[in-house]
Each structure stands twice: as C-alpha cells, then as structure tokens.
Amino acid sequence: MQLDPNAIADYNQSQLEGHQRKLSYWTQEVATAEPIIRKLIDFQIAIPSWALGTGGTRFGRFAGGGEPRSLEEKMADVGLLHALNQASGAISLHIPWDIPTDYDAIKGLAASYSLAFDAVNSNTFQDQPEQELSYKFGSLQHVDAAVRQQAIDHNIDVIRHGEALGSKALTVWLSDGSCFPGQLNFRKAFGRTLDSLGEIYAALPEDWKLFVEYKAFEPNFYSMTVGDWGSSFLYASKLGPKAYTLVDLGHHLPNANIEQIVSILLNEGKLGGFHFNDSKYGDDDLTAGSIKPYQLFLIFNELVDGMDARGMNHATSLGWMIDASHNVKDPLEDLLQSVEAIQLAYAQALLVDRQALEEAREANDVAQAQEILQDAFRTDVRPLVAEARRRAGGALQPLALYRQLNVRQQLIGERGAKTIATGL
Ligand SMILES: [Mn+2]
C-alpha cells in the first residue's frame, strides 16, 4: 500500500502546536539543538528483510495478518516505515529468503521508496531444499572440504546479488560450533573457518566490507567458532583491511560490557556495524531499548566519542541495522519503536558534555562523571527526534499515525489474514 501523500502533512498540522511548545525549550535554551537535529536527519537505520513478518520460537509461531509474501511486498513495508519516520532508508537482504529475480525492477522499486540496499546476509545455518550437502555439522568449519566449498560458493553468490543491487557489504553470521565437549578440534575449526572466510574475502569487490558477526551460543551450545568479539576481531584482523567485526547486541553472555567492547573495536578501526535489538536472557531479539535503554545510551555514548575521535561520519562510517524478531507485536509497529529508541539514544549521546566528562575523569571525580552521563540520559529528547522527522518529511509521531491510518487492517485487506513471510 502507498500512504496518501497528504496524510503525514495533515497529521503533523494537527499536532504542530503541542510539538512546537515542547520544542521551544530546545531552540531557545540549548545551543546544540540545531546540530543535533541535523545529525538525526542524516542518521538512517537499515531494516532487515527477515523482520517484516511474525517471528517464532522453537515452540511455535503465531502469525499476524497481512505479512509480506514476496521481496516486493517486504520492500513496500520498509518503504512505508521510511515514509512515516524518514529514518529507515535502507533494507538489508537475506539470501536465499529474498533472492531478487529482476535486479532492475527491484532497484527501481527501491528508488521509488527512497531505499538503499544495506549489507547482504548469507545463510549457512539451514539446509535449503535443493542443497546437495548438509550444514548439520557446520559450514565454513566443516571437516569435509566439499561442504566448506559449498558454503564459500553460497557466500560469493550472495556478494554477486548484492553487487547487482548496489550493496557494499556482506554480513557473515555462522552457526558453526559444537554441542558437546570433544566434538570439535577448536584449532582445526578456527583454521578451516579462517581459510574459508579468506576465499570469500578474496571475492569481495574493491569497495566492499566483510562483517564477521559473533554470537556466544545457540544453535550450538558448547562452543561457537565465532563466539565472541575476540574471535571475530582475530578473524577480521587476519583477513585484512576490508574485514570488520559486527556487534549484535543480543549475541553476548549475560551482563557483558558491550559499550567497552564497542569502544575498543572502534579504537582499533575494526568495528564494522551493528545489529540492534534488546534482550533480557539471551538472543531474545526484542525491540531496541525495551529492556536496557541505559545500556543502549552508553553504547551510543562510546560510539559518538570514538567516531569523533577518529573523525568518522556518524551516518555513513558504520553499518546501522536492526536485527529483531517479533513474536507478539505487529512487526511494523515494533520496528517503528526500535528506530525511535535508537534515535533517542543517539540524540542523548550527542548531548553529553564531553569536555566536562573528560575533566571529571582526569580529576578522578567519579560522582561528577556519572552525573554528566545520567544528566544526558535523563533528558527528554523526544521533541528533537520528532522535529528531525518533521523536517525530513516524516510524521511527528509515526506509531500514532500508523494506528490512525489503520495500516495493518489495510495490509490484511490487500494480502489476506493468513499470509506468512519468509524468515525466522
Ligand atoms: Mn544479527
């Protein structure tokens, strides 16, 4: 479905007075308000093609209605999100769930929604129906060279799809590992995985990046061959300058200090990108900022600090992607919430008085350093984010307008109540 072009303008007009009242404090009292709004307008977060349908667990899946049935419908959903928030201007494709058949038509469709193609994602964690050899015991680490070659060929195939669409990065997440002590020779698994990644790396176009995503556990429960940021950093360092570590917020052991990991990787020039989500127990794939918003802020605090220290462009130097699943919520509502939570954390990080923070640190003034961070975190930056959206042509309150327009009911009308999107 396409939004009525006047719907956003009419809605914003109805909300304008209240919005301007809340914004006036910022424009009158805060000198940095204007540069923060401009940075927010530039900041785009890619939507994964696998997050537009209802997710499931191993216990079951409770599909919602009107889920996209094709790549074209997935792109329409992302186009809808982007029209509402003007901050979701990219889609991250998963192969083989979303193989384009007509590149020009797909590129034309993306352009019509003002969408770019972010990193493409390979899949060697499942067996596909037409596949010759099984990944039951791993892919790039497999003891059988023929299985490794099949997985390498698949990744190169994904690169070619991405090239045809204008992507600039490949994300490799491996489920490789072992479920029981003794099953795997760790040294051989590392070596084989590194060699396999090396062949994929060699097939990268000149201006591409390879993101090596790590995960602590699941589906393997004893060891993961790319299990933590240290392993990912090792692979990325050995592979070369086009390889980077990708941080998925849900892929750590409980209580990991993710902001410190981010800081160190950034400083080494090896942080490539992000998969945003939130979790309480494991790889829960919940809405960004729904469980630990302070952690999300602290991560952005390190990102802003580290990117500025290295002279990096906030909007374009790293890959910003959501990787989430929605078991009980409307996926589009959930994604609107995630994007907003990411924007709020980013805006709060931009508010931090960095000079005062450094002075407090150098003086060992622990309480003052904490006050400075919490002062930013406790500031209501929602008017700034809403103003950035309004200026970019989006809705002041995307979720409220989405509901007011009955978007989900319209999608059910178009697509049916029992459609199922490909994905997890
Ligand atoms: Mn991920």
From TrEMBL:
<dbReference type="InterPro" id="IPR036237">
    <property type="entry name" value="Xyl_isomerase-like_sf"/>
</dbReference>
<keyword id="KW-0479">Metal-binding</keyword>
<protein>
    <submittedName>
        <fullName>Sugar isomerase</fullName>
    </submittedName>
</protein>
<keyword id="KW-0413">Isomerase</keyword>
<keyword id="KW-0464">Manganese</keyword>
<dbReference type="GO" id="GO:0016853">
    <property type="term" value="F:isomerase activity"/>
</dbReference>
<dbReference type="InterPro" id="IPR050337">
    <property type="entry name" value="L-rhamnose_isomerase"/>
</dbReference>
<dbReference type="GO" id="GO:0046872">
    <property type="term" value="F:metal ion binding"/>
</dbReference>
